[in-house]
Amino acid sequence: MTIITDLKLLYESDESLWLEETIELLRQKQFHQLDVENLIEELVSLGKRDLARVKSLLRQIIIHLLLLQFWQVEYERNHRHWIGEVKTFRYDLNNHLTTNLRNKLEDDLDNIYHSAVDFVESKTDLTILPEKCPYCLGQLLDDDYLPEKDS
């Protein structure tokens, strides 16, 4: 049995060990022995996971900024919690962000915003939320930015 076949079988039975073996082959520049099909699948999956993670974090930032800005009924009781959530999500997002992922967030900001609005409306019964995202990506990522409370 060849190494390539062994790697393909290994992928099916022990993905963690497959990954270790693949990394070692890459380090040794043994490219001809790689399980290219599964390596491509894993890289595509990794890219999708990273994008989903940063979209989710950005959505959470938007949700909490909308709550801070527009949900007056709960503001006094929850604003400190919401600010803490924004700080935590920003920290996590900025730790995972690359130039490429930032560009993808910029391109998909409208969709991310609308999913955040959908959540906030279902949670709060608010109907006064802006149709377009009132925050630019720079504000959403800025550790010091918080919107002014809507009066």
The quaternary structure here is single chain
How big a fraction of the residues is strand? under 5%
Radius of gyration: 21 Å
Q: H/E order of the elements? A: HHHHHHH
Sheet of most strands = none
Number of helices: 7
- List low-pLDDT spans: none
Structural class: mainly alpha
Helix content: over 70%
Average residue pLDDT: 93
**Distance from first to last alpha carbon:** 72 Å
How many strand segments? 0
Shape verdict: elongated
Task: Outline the fold blueprint.
Elements: H1 3-13, H2 15-27, H3 36-70, H4 72-96, H5 99-107, H6 109-124, H7 137-141
Helix pairs in contact: 1-2, 3-4, 3-6
Task: Characterise this structure.
The protein is mainly alpha-helical. It has a domain of 92 residues. It contains 7 helices and no strands. The chain is elongated and about 65 Å long. The mean pLDDT is 93.
Keywords:
single chain, 151 residues, mainly alpha
Question: Nutshell version of this structure?
Answer:
It is built from seven helices and no strands. With 151 residues, it is mostly helical.
